[in-house]
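Supplementary Note 2. Why include the ligand at all?

Several targets in our set were suspected to adopt different conformations when bound, so apo predictions alone were not considered sufficient. For every target with a known small-molecule partner we therefore ran a joint prediction. The input for GLP is given below.
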Amino acid sequence: MFVQRIITKDYDEMSRRAADFVADKLRQNPELRLGLPTGNTPRGMYEQLVERYARGELDFSRVHTFNLDEYWGLEPDHPAAFARYIQNHFLRHVNVPSGQAHWPSGKGDAAENARTYEARIGSEGLDIIILGIGVNGHIGFNEPGAAFDARTGFVQLAERTRQDAFHPRSGFATREDVPIHGITMGIGTILEAKSILLLASGASKAKAIQRALEGPVTEEVPASALQRHGDVTVIVDEAAAARLADK
Ligand code: GLP
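The joint prediction is reproduced in token form.
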């Protein structure tokens, strides 16, 4: 595996460095096929990308975006839907043409939605997939135990993931509203991306980051699958890096 580790002072620097990474890749390849995460972690990166676009530094007109995952059972405009998150934090502020923004549908026939989404990702695959990480080591909605060769599919959320998903900015009115299932790119799908960018911030992620990067490669820690990839960049702040032996 090739892992480049960048440890930043704080969240803001993590966000700037993540935006630098995407901006560099975009300049090298204006037709970037870009996998996008949700959650609190990437908010600052999206803000940076949007600001740089507004200053005329970036052009997304030939980019295709692919959302990493979605809650099952939510309409795309539900306040907590990941499709809406990506729309609000990124797409509506930049010039990705609407036909070039893709997401897995969280309604209808799950198997059919998964097939359709894999077909959209297609044999071309993704140039970059950006990932956050769950405290239990999940990536996307691939929870502990998920197969490393899994493709996009319907999955059950871990109880811890459901708990963490409920917070003031989550878009859910009550804890019980957090769906039990999701649809996510599989670990197999993720590992086929040409490069992977993993982001984490804060002490709550320190254990997951240590297990992902330095622990055994095991399906019990989904993010440990990244050790099998040849081009991973990890940008984490000092708090998230605190447990790494090799800093
Ligand atoms: C959810 C998403 C993941 C994300 C994780 C961490 O489970 N499906 O893609 O990485 O939450 O979110 P946060 O960045 O808010 O900690």
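Strands lie at 3-8, 33-36, 64-67, 69-71, 101-102, 128-131, 153-156, 181-184, 195-200, 232-237. The helical segments are 11-28, 43-54, 82-89, 110-121, 159-165, 187-191, 206-214, 238-241. Comparable summaries for the other entries are listed in the accompanying table.
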